[in-house]
Amino acid sequence: MPTSPSELFDLAVVGAGPAGLAAAVTAADLGLRCVLLDGADRTGGQYYRHPAPGLGAARPDRLHHGWAAYTGLAARLTAHRRAEFRGGHQVWALERTEDGFAVHVTLGPEAAERTTVRARTVLLATGAYERQLPFPGWTLPGVVTAGGAQAMLKAGLVLPGRRIVVAGSGPLLLAAASSLVGAGADVPAVVEASGYLGYARRPGVLAAVPAKLVEGAGHGSALLRHGVRLRPRSAVVEAHGDERVTGVTVARLGADWRPLPGTERRIDCDALAVGHGLLPQIELATELGAQTRTGPDGAVALRVDARLRTTVPGLWSAGETNGVGGADLALAEGELAAHAIAGEPPERALLRRRARLRAFAELMAAAHRPGPGWTGWLRPDTDVCRCEEVPVARIREAVEELGAGDPRTVKLLTRAGMGWCQGRMCGPAVACLSGATGAGPDRRPLACPVPLSQLAAGASE
Amino acid sequence: MTRRRTPAALVEADPGPAHRIEFDGRPVRALPGQSIAAALWADGVLAWRTTRVGGRPRGAFCGIGACFDCLATVNGRANQRLCLLPAEPGTVVTTQEGHGRADLAV
Amino acid sequence: MVGAGVVGAACAYYAARAGLAVAVVDRGPVAGGTTGAGEGNLLVSDKEPGPELDLALLSLRLWRELAEQLGPAVEYEPKGGVVVASTAAGQQALRDFAAGQAAVGVSAEEVPAERLHELEPHLAPGLAGGYHYPQDAQVQPALAAAHLLREARRMGAELSTGETVTAVERGPDGAVRGVRTDRRRLAAPAVVNATGAWGAELAALAGAHLPVLPRRGFVLVTEPLPRVVRHKVYSADYVADVASGSAGLQTSSVIEGTPGGPVLIGASRERVGFDRTISHEAIGRLAAEAAALFPVLAQVAVMRTYRGFRPYLPDHLPAIGEDPRVPGLYHACGHEGAGIGLAPATGLLISEQLTGKRSELDLAPFRADRFPASTDPLEKP
Ligand SMILES: Cc1cc2nc3c(=O)[nH]c(=O)nc-3n(C[C@H](O)[C@H](O)[C@H](O)COP(=O)(O)OP(=O)(O)OC[C@H]3O[C@@H](n4cnc5c(N)ncnc54)[C@H](O)[C@@H]3O)c2cc1C
Ligand code: FES
Fold first, then answer.
1. A172-198: per-residue pLDDT in tens?
2. Which of C108, C154, C191, C295 has the fewest CB atoms below 10 angstroms from its CB?
3. Is C325 helix (H, G, I), strand (E, B) or coil?
């Protein structure tokens, strides 16, 4: 389908995960001309990440819950005349224009040109990335994020090691552990900082979402079968090794997540998969001034109304960008947003489904909110910022002696968060160490690095 | 009869023919469609960069393009994210020291 | 002292050193205003002879002293500046400009086209020539402000952040008696307005008219690099842009490396009020100019942009010293794009005035009452 560069779409959807896919397909059904953009070459996003065709996977469904939902959407997308997928399109900024939005795209470092997609409305479905909390040794090779271990497995059919400890907090840990085990890894322990009690005590909510229960039970039984030990109220407080990880120390945590002295035990392993839940990826919207809210997990998400409109006119948001809640919720929100953008009334059943799933998500989020005592496992020389190698001691100096009391000032004074990842990995830790309360969203004027030549190309446009 | 559990066995993969990439001068096997990081992991390599300040080894961390820990020099271009770049036949990967731009220093 | 930017920090430092009891109040954090949003150029090269250049020369001397005292943490680098011209006419203009500056103590050396690459190997070919200004230097602004404040606190100054000044209290004689904040009353016979781009608001709280306006600027920040640019390098157009009063967008890039690794490419100038949205036009033009001066930068990644609001007064000179209309109100604001450079001199002059010493410079050109109320330029909010 050839398009002129200046073609004005009715809707540009940024992010081709469950929310974006559902939105693009539904909106196209409703008569809108849509373009679906994603930095990756294939649709699916983080959740439906799957092996490249060349790997010849006959049963990709074994790595996913609800795989059929994805294949259905993907088939509808391919068949649709009014919807178009553009892979390898990494959006680095949205700009408001007279007739809607200019969506600024980089086609990667090799590309000579930049690309701008124009659309009357934009739906943000950019998902989330993992929340990390530093600990001594977390920069060693072999320490990977829980989601990263899963992503590398789903897309590349590889494991970071043979004996992998899974640690951190949140429902993703169980999912990651069961795929790792299924793929042949030995998982000696799943180390979960929370007690899982927060939502288990509220059976009403769980009963309302039977699919979640089935999913949880599924993971649980797979893990039991393989002898994986679940260690609640515990954390990896140190990773050992020189050139790569050779073991971890696990300690029990008090109610505020402070490690309890004397409870440490060592577990040998050759990899550690760690994560503390997910953080919405919302900078494209916040740069336009979109308002945010802080969820029960402490993560900053976009503020949307019942029809998933952000506070920026013409900009909608669906899925994890509105607060982390999983693939089913993302699918429901994508569909709802499409209805709203097309000016159609919402389906009542869909509204109810979304409300139920959101409620469950908020409960989970509250249960896995990091306790303030986690800083108890830091040492002065623990690097907080991986990119710029800024240790705890330098951040404490900025706060205690130089008068920094918020993440931005800590950044300016220490360079923490100024490196390649622009604070995505160290952001929560820096915010916590700076003593900030209720910090707003991180500012990232460019959502990803852009080659200077491509920025320059914008001047002549 | 029990088959060894592997990622490929889990999804009953029947990959196309393997090819080679080069890592620090030696050949590394890669399957079609794998990222460079995946090919290196499969080969047991977890680090392909040393940091600017401490000279410490690093490799893939987030696996999804967010952390930029997996940077290395690919076909002479510094600072490429190996978790995103496909391993094309003949790709040349070199361990990157620091910013990887020493050639520009004046 | 109201304001914990670099100017407020320098005022606090010199006042505390002079033995005064000092409290610094800021509604945000240290360096949370323009100080944390720009570059740290300490330039004499871009200034024509006159009161601002006098201030800059004094300041450069003070920065050298401060750098010794504050240590490497403030990333002071006396690296010198190189101004380049792309045409013979431009080079002639630089020559005339430098001749004027030489008379008041600015050293500058003409660099013929064929020697430009000895100074800056990565410069684009085909330039007409340039000038080397060895006095130009650089600091990291936020660190400079924070360390000045740390020293001030060691000498007894008090720092309170997250506290907003809501009123300036005056006695029956009109003289300042202190300020009210959202937390407390602070009694003081002298209040220093170091609120930068927000200087008009604070002046108004004291009943004084001071037309400080924001002049927005963007700076591009690249990926970490080795040293690819040795000096601060900019094109001759920059001087014209700085001196311009136009509200429209102007860009002429100044390029410099930093000890942290990234190259900074600044800066655009436009008057659009306190609008924080990215101007794609501005950052595109900065990038294009940087790539034209240093083609090697075309392939590097830009990771971030800073945006800041320069505190601008219509005649491009700051307001420094006691306000003749409001006894006890001292201004130290409106330094536009040179506040980092001019901060120490401003601080020293204010503390001399506060302690009744003879001033090192004539403060008349910096008087706050030099703008009649009717000359306010029209400004969008
Ligand atoms: C893009 C850009 C590049 C620049 N590059 C350079 C350069 O290379 N070299 C150079 O010398 N200069 C440069 N500048 C200019 C320089 O940053 C400013 O001149 C300087 O920061 C001004 O310092 P300040 O302390 O006056 O203001 P600020 O740093 O803005 O400090 C003012 C403080 O006052 C506080 N405040 C305001 N109102 C109140 C109130 N009612 N109560 C309490 N607190 C209040 C604010 O919160 C703020 O912290 C640049 C500026 C920009 C935008
Ligand atoms: S592993 Fe994080 S960006 Fe590649």
1. 898 899 999 999 999 999 999 998 655
2. C154
3. coil
Atom from ligand 2 closest to the CA of residue B61: 1
8-state DSSP, C5: S
Residue C381 is predicted with a pLDDT of: 34
Closest residue by Cα to residue C170 from C204, C209, C212, C211: C204
Q: How many CB atoms lie within 10 A of CB A133?
A: 23
From the CB of residue C158, how many other CB atoms can be counted at a distance below 10 Å?
Answer: 15
Task: Compute, in angstroms, the gap from residue C313 CA to the centroid of ligand 1.
Answer: 13
CATH 3.10.20.440 fits B18-94, yes or no: yes
Q: What is the pLDDT of residue A224?
A: 74
DSSP state of C154: H
CA-CA-CA-CA torsion sign (C285, C289, C291, C292): positive
**DSSP secondary structure code for residue B35 in this structure:** B
Q: Where do we find the tokens 């952000």?
A: A310
Residues of A in contact with B86 (CB under 8 A): 52
pTM: 0.92
**In the prediction, which pLDDT does A440 show?**
76
Alpha-carbon distance of C207 to A258, in angstroms, equals: 53
Query: Which domains are assigned to chain A?
Result: 9-129+278-346 (3.50.50.60), 133-275 (3.50.50.60), 378-460 (1.10.10)
ipTM: 0.96
107-126 of C, contacting B, C-beta below 8 A = 120-122
Q: Summarize pLDDT for C117-131 with one digit per residue, the tens.
A: 999 999 999 999 999
- How do the domains of chain B map onto residue ranges? 18-94
CB A303, CB A323: distance < 8 Å: no
Best mutation site among C14, C34, C161 for ligand 1, i.e. most ligand atoms within 8 A of its Cβ? C34
Gap between the Cα atoms of C121 and C117, Å rounded: 4
- Locate C243 and state its tokens: 């001196």
